[in-house]
Structure formats: structure tokens, C-alpha cells
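Input for the complex:
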Amino acid sequence: MEIATELEFPLIPVLARMELQGIKIDMDRLQAFAGELRKDLIALQETIFQKTGTDFNLNSPQQLGDVLFNKMGLPSGKKTKTGQYSTSEAVLQELANEYEVPSLILDYRSLAKLLSTYVEALPKLADPETHRIHTSFNQTIAATGRLSSSNPNLQNIPIRTERGREIRKAFIPEEGFMLVSADYSQVELRVIASIANATQMIQAFEDGEDIHARTAMEIFGLDSLEDVTPDQRRKAKEVNFGIPYGVSAYGLASRLGIPNKEGKQMIDRYFERFPGVQTYMTSTIEEARDKQYVTTLMGRRRYIPDIQSGNWNARGFAERTAINMPIQGTAADIIKKAMIEIDELLQREGCRSRMLLQVHDELVFEVAHDEVEELVPKIRGLMEQAFELSVPLEVEVGVADNWLDAH
DNA sequence: TCTCTGCTCAC
DNA sequence: CAAGTGAGCAGAGAC
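Predicted:
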């Protein structure tokens, strides 16, 4: 009830304003990019048809599986649950070193995804007068307390690949405004450190250390942060991301491409160095078994009846859900509280600037030129002070004339 | 037209 | 067995 009256209900008008405001896209830029992508896709398709010696629908996993594994006789791996050959990214990646076609398919897929899901779809949804796109922020979908976004989903705009970033560049401010992006740095890890009372991790955050390097130092038994190699840091980062999801030795090893034994060693060492995290995991599962629900630090509740299931698989899934929800959900509670307070500031001060998007740990604003200087520190302050953990919350802010460069 | 499946984008 | 939360696309098949 407190989450409802103090957080969710006050958030409703905030989300309504964000949806009504919308965000402007550069339609010309997207149209030009669409032309490039179409040209490259046709060329890739031609090459693939030539190398496979057959024309087929490249977008059909079924037809693709037939061509790769029956006609060409490539070594097949996983099957899907309907008994077809899997052509998933993982499967194709496995073949990509030895064979040319799977690698070309991967290139084709990534471009086709960008074109169909974003470059062609977004302009269709823009207001023809204002060129602004209006998403729906769904408040009652995600079981952890996160928002979701639909029609279009503006929470999954590409950023990881070079050409994906082209799409972010097409999100722009209105004349006279800048886009401001403010994102919480490592918020979920800070929540874990705080909930689990992980002393070394708390110290690292207080000292402003590189948290993945610190984790590497701990799990690989090094004496100093300077001794951490890039490869050790990469592995430690994967552990830090996997822990809040209840990753197994097998899961970690397969993601890192290392032996299971090595994955197990890393996880064992992690729990040795951060015993609070292990205690958190076991006590959270125990509590969930007892009450059939788990909670965030602000009291949001998620019921997990499967935690008592006799089915090994269902119970395991429920346990990982139980571990994850308080972490993901506390982060969601924190940003929601910040949104309410920032909206209140913008309304109270009669600002022309406005909040446009929320992407789980990030808020995007359209800020009038003459309000940037005053608002940026206030936004940062409200986000960092939204909730007190036993570690500081840190927010990174960027200002630019498109979303990519603001990030 | 509707639903399911496989795949891939984000945090 | 095996990493949590979502959304949308194209293909495929039922109706």
C-alpha cells in the first residue's frame, strides 16, 4: 500500500506528461540511413545466395536451417523445442570462424534487425507535424517494479554496435533545447553491496574505485588494482553482472568460454571474498520459501509461489527470480522516486525543460539552453539523494544535441 | 486475422 | 539443469 500511495500513484501524472511530450526524431537522417542499410542488405543477400548456391528467404530460420545443415552439410548443434535446427546467434557464432556463410548471416541479421525494428518503424509512428514519437510507459507489467515501454519500445534503442549507434543519433532536441542524459552508475551493484553489507565492495564504491577491477583483484587474489590484467577485469565484470541473476558455474564458464572448473573457482572465490553476498542469496531464498514472496528495500513485494515447487527446474528458476527481484526492484524504486521529485521541481519552478524518457537506470531530458546550467546539478542531486544506501549513488550526466552524444 | 515461434534489441 | 526483466520483427500455420 505504501508503494502504491507514495510511489506508483504520484508517478502516474509524471508518466502522462512524458508520454504526451514525446521525443523528436530526425526523419531525414533515418531515411538516409535506411537507404544505406537496404543497399548493404541486398549486397549481403546476393553474396549469401551465391555462396550457398540457392535462393531462399534469409529471414526464415526454418529455411536457413535447411540450407545450412541439410543442403550444405555444416555440423549442426542445438535443436529448438519444435525440433528444428537452431540458427541462433550462439550457434552461428560457433560456426563463424570456420565457415563464411554463418558469419555473413550474422551480418545480415544485425542489419535487418536495425532496418525493420527501428529505422523503418520509428518514422511511421512520428507525428507528421512535430516529428515527435510518443511511447507508452507501462506501469503494471514488469513483476520487479520496472517500467516497460511499448508502441514503440524506446527502452531498447540500439547502442552497442557502430551502426546501431546511428539510430541513437536520430533522437534530437527541439530547437532551443539540448538533450540531457543522466544515468545511475552501477546502481544494481551498489544495491547488492548495500543489501548484502559486502564490506570490500562498499569500500570500493566509497573510494570511487573501478568496481570490476576491484572484484578481479579480490577473486584472483592480487595485491593491487594495478596488477589486474584486462582479461581478469573482463572476467570479473561478467561475474558482477551474473551474480544478481543467480549465475551458475556452468553459465559463467560458457559465457566466458572457459572450463566449468575455472568458472566454479571464480564463483567460490567471489563468495569467499564477499560472504555477505552469499548470505543474502541463501537467506533471501529461505525467506521466500517461508513467505512465498520477496521485497525491495522500499517494501515492494513479488509473490513467487514456484519457490515451493517439487519440480527442480521450476524451483531453480523461482530461486533465481527471488535473488534478482529485490535488486532489480530496489533500483526501479529508486529511479521512480527520483522521477517524482524531479517532476515536482520542473513544475514548481515553471521550467520549459521536461523529462522525456526513462530507461531503467537513465533519465533523458529536453532542457532549454538557458536552463541547462541551473538544472543539471539539481537533477543530479535529486537522483543521487533519492534513496540512502550504505554506499553513495553516483549519476553521470551528459549534454548534447542528440541522444548518443549525451550518453 | 490471430497466435505461436525463433530470434535479437535494451538494461 | 545451467543469467534476471522486458518488446517487436518476420515467418509459419490455423482459421
